[in-house]
Amino acid sequence: MSKELIRLKDVSMTFDGETVLDNMNIYFNDKEFLTLLGPSGCGKTTTLRIIGGFLVPTSGDVFFDGVRINDVPPYQRQVNTVFQKYALFPHLNVYDNVAFGLRIPKAASDGEDVIDQSSSKKKKQKKVKLSKDEIDQRVREMLEVVSLKGFEKRTVSSLSGGQQQRVAIARALVNRPKVLLLDEPLGALDLRLRKDMQQELKRIQKQMGITFIYVTHDQEEALAMSDTVVVMNNGKIQQIGTPEDIYNEPKNAFVADFIGESNIVDGIMREDYVVEIFGRRFRCVDKGFEKDEPVDVVIRPEDVDIVDLSQGALTGLVTSVTFKGMHYDIIVDFKGFKWLIETTDFCPVGSRIGIKLDPDSFHVMKKSEYSGMYGDYSSYSAEYDEIGDVEYQEEEAPQEEYYEG
Description:
This protein is an alpha+beta fold. The protein folds into 2 domains: 4-248, P-loop containing nucleotide triphosphate hydrolases (Rossmann fold); 262-388 and 395-401, CATH 2.40.50.140.
């Protein structure tokens, strides 16, 4: 079982009377790659800065390894940070940039009070300076970890964006922190390099065996790298889970819309395993709702099968087609509500199609403050052509009378 390393308890943060974090409660495990994911202004960077010691929360407590550290300054925390702007020293080469922190004595000068993080007590502690040989060994080891062996004498201005980022990561890790905080470090890189660096960061985290807390607004980054994803909005945690859980089992319409693409429609849970949308009843895999409870229904674009009109449970009008390489993104009007469908079949604009939905195509969620805000891919409405309804028998209707796709 993973060991808890950091805990934020009832943490709130306000700036000029505006609440940025609202009573946050969360813990971070040792050796975990955890991502704080959300739109700009949701509070994720503020959370990171509180952990790093750059901000003191308005209320609540921060614990590191069970010890309250609200008042411990950043340089006395076992935490280092990599920012989007790498802040490398242009007058130093790669080696000296990485070695810079090691050349600074780790404790205060003789006779000066310092805080022992393990005990939260003040004690006298003399400064300790690493030997030249130890500095050299640690710098070269770290450059090998970030795949920059042989770059020691290169100027940082001669490096690519990805290489500069690796120097920044090496500089942060060479001090051997227990936690590395990363605030959108891939934001300045092009798409191809971002994807390469995602894999590199995951490799480095596994190799070093330390906790990474990563901030991004990029859903793909979060899903590709993380052990745990924390989805945030308006200073509150919306959902915590594995990438698979966040994508396949979103808790509300905000999470469903923010993580990937989603068609989110109003529905009614008629009974366990039976959901109604557009006046039609479908078999699903969800249960535990009240009878006839209004719900939000998520249908991912890749879970919709296009079939002949005569076989479709629903039919709609194609209003837009976009070629994406491996598939087409098509927008289809269903009764004035526009769906996104991913398909390898070309469907020209203006054509009518039928769709099939299997029981596991549906994910049913309780109504929330975000209901009705997401999931419609346009306000454009076209004439809706329905095929004949299948009667639903209230008393023990046979399974074939439900739309099963």
